[in-house]
C-alpha cells in the first residue's frame, strides 16, 4: 500500500526562538517565543560525507558516514522596538547570538541626564543638580548654558541652547534664572533642580549631556560569552530543532519598506519530530514603521544625506567546530560592512572620492522611527569607504557607497540602539 496522500501545508509555519542559558542545552522555546519571521529557509542534516573507500572484489559505490551534522537556518525578522523607551526588542535573543552584547539605559532621570555638568575652559562658575525628570528624546543632545547675568543663586541668568539635529529643531531658552531648588526645563522633557556653588561670571558656560533611554547592542570579542539560541521551526506539525544556533545578521533599510534583519546561522541537527503546531504569541512585536522621508535620517561624516537605502552587515565568520570533548558553533571573526545608495552630494559639501582616496576614517549614523519604544539608531564610529560607484535612478545621479566598519580601541565600531 502506498503512503496515503496527506501533504503537509508549507503555509502553516511557526518559528520559535529562545536564548540558551548554557550553550547547546535545549532552551525549549514555546509559543510566547514566536518570531515575526519571513523567508525562513532550513537545511536540516547538512554534514560532511566521508566515503569508506575500502577495496572490494566487484564494482560499485562504497558506503559512507556523516560527520559534523548540523542544521543551517536563515530567516528575516522585523526590526522593531520593544514598545517602551529603553525596552529590549523582541529580536534580542537572536542579536545576542550574533556576537553582540546588550546594555540597557533605563528611562529614568538618573540614567538619561548626565550626573554632572562640564564647563568651558577657564570658567569658574559651578553648579550641582538633582536629576528630576527623565529625558524622553530619541537622539542624544547636549545643552549649553551661557551666563548673561553674573551672580549666584537667584541672580545668575543663562541662555540655554541645543543645536537642531535630525527631526529635532534647535532648543533655546533665554534669560533663565538659576535658583537653588527651583526646577529648570531642558529639551525632551528633561528637568534638573540646581544648586549653585561658585558664582558665575558673564560668559561662563556649562554643558549637560542628555542620553536617550535605549537597549544598545555593541560588538563583543569575548567568544566565551557569545550568546546562542534554540530554534524550533514547525512545518504543519513537523518540528525541526536547531540547537546552539549562532550566526550573523544584516540590518536592511530600503525606501518604502520596513526595516528588517536578514539572519543566517548554524546549529546542531536534531531529528525532526511530529508535534501539534503551537500557536505563536506575537504580542511583544510592535508594528514596524515604513522607511521614508518623515521618519528616516542618514548622516555621513556629519552631513545629512538624501538616500534610497542603507544596510549594516555584521558579516560574522561562523562555523561548526567539533573536536574530541567539544562541539560548538563559533564566531571566529567579523568584517562589518556599511552600504548605502545616496543622491550624489555637491562636492563642496561632501567629496566622498577624496575621503575614499585618502582612506579617511569617517562616522555614519542612521535613525529610523521617531516614537520612543519603536526607534532604531545605528551609530558607526569609524569606517573607510571604497570608491563611490555612480548610477542612475529615475534620472537622478546616485552613488553606491560601501565602507569597512573599523574598530578604534576594540568592540567600539558599531552601536545598534533600540530607543
Short summary of the structure?
With 419 residues, this protein is mainly beta. 4% of the residues lie in helices and 49% in strands. The protein has three helices and 28 strands.
Q: Name the average pLDDT.
A: 96
> Which spans of ≥5 residues are poorly predicted at pLDDT below 50?
none
Distance between the termini: 60 Å
Tell me the number of helical segments per DSSP (H or I, 4 or more residues long): 3
Structure summary, number of beta strands: 28
Strand content: over 45%
Could you say how many structural domains there are in total? 2
Radius of gyration over all CA atoms, rounded: 27 Å
- Tell the overall outline: elongated
Describe the sheet with the most strands.
18 strands, antiparallel
Structural class: mainly beta
The helicity comes to under 10%
Provide an overview of this structure.
With 419 residues, this protein is mainly β. It has 2 domains: 13-45 and 67-105 and 215-418, no CATH class; 109-212, no CATH class. It is 4% helix and 49% strand. The protein is built from 3 helices and 28 strands. The chain has an 18-stranded antiparallel β-sheet that branches. Strand 21 and strand 22 (326-334) form a beta hairpin. The longest helix is centred in the C-terminal third of the chain and has 6 residues, at 352-357. It starts with 12 loop residues before the first strand and ends with a strand.
